[in-house]
Design goal:
Order of helices and strands: EEEHEHEEEHHEEEHHEEH
Radius of gyration: 18 Å
Number of helices: 7
Distance between the termini: 39 Å
Strand order of the largest sheet: 5-4-10-1-11-12-9-8
């Protein structure tokens, strides 16, 4: 089985849609995806993900099932009266905490327990488990029980932070490392493929993460969205 996770193209957050560049990215992405044999499409309910998916779906005369848990990850933390995202922490803050590097401890830290992180993380984990079970692969500890072996391809149009949550659950690792040490640029493609080396038992391996070959092939520069300043003195996002 093949799972393709697509981050939405360059976003216009104010309108929950795409920028002009984002629409060009989505068009190049559609050229890439429309040639695939896809069993099913799934999409976040947010506009920027739906708009990204729309060009591919139109070319293939297909529809996508909207899944509420594919929305951008809504886990937040509280410090005093301030509530903020759990997945955008400063390097000096999160790297100082050993528990953030451990799958079964990261969400039990004082900060992560301060608001709704555990609830929202479980929502996404349960969602991807239900979806994969419906396609023949049932999560069992760190492995997957193969109820129906297949070569199907499914495509998920979603967002960077929730993509990392999905990967962390499938790989049994902390999402903190994925959120902060990896970046999937707009319209990027991440591909997981099941491997059943032992009969009835499978794992998923990442064949590519955040691939933007379709942009290079179309002469489109990658977006800076989701990145931060390369050097502190740069006049970019800090």
């Amino acid at each position: 089985m093949r799972i393709i996770i697509v981050r939405h193209a360059e976003p216009d957050y104010a309108r929950d849609s795409l920028t002009e560049k984002g629409w060009r990215e989505a068009e190049l992405l559609s050229n890439r995806l429309s040639g695939l044999d896809v069993k099913a499409f799934y999409c976040s309910p947010l506009g920027r993900a739906k708009d990204t998916a729309s060009l591919t779906l139109k070319k293939m005369n297909r529809e996508a099932t909207q899944l509420p848990w594919l929305t951008e990850f809504r886990g937040k933390v509280r410090r005093g009266l301030k509530i903020s995202s759990c997945w955008d922490r400063l390097p000096s803050e999160w790297t100082a905490e050993d528990n953030y590097y451990t799958n079964d401890k990261w969400q039990k830290t004082k900060l992560m327990k301060s608001y709704n992180v555990q609830k929202e993380y479980k929502l996404v984990c349960d969602g991807i488990d239900d979806l994969l079970r419906s396609h023949g692969y049932a999560h069992a500890g760190r492995l997957y029980k193969v109820n129906h072996a297949n070569h199907d391809t499914i495509v998920l149009f979603c967002h960077f932070a929730v993509e990392c949550v999905i990967l962390s659950h499938i790989f049994s690792c902390s999402p903190m490392v994925l959120w902060h040490n990896f970046v999937a640029l707009p319209s990027s493609v991440t591909t997981l493929i099941s491997e059943e080396r032992e009969e009835g038992v499978a794992v998923f391996r990442c064949q590519q993460f955040g691939d933007i070959g379709h942009l290079y092939a179309g002469g489109e520069e990658p977006s800076f969205a989701a990145r931060f300043c390369e050097c502190y003195e740069d006049d970019t996002r800090h």
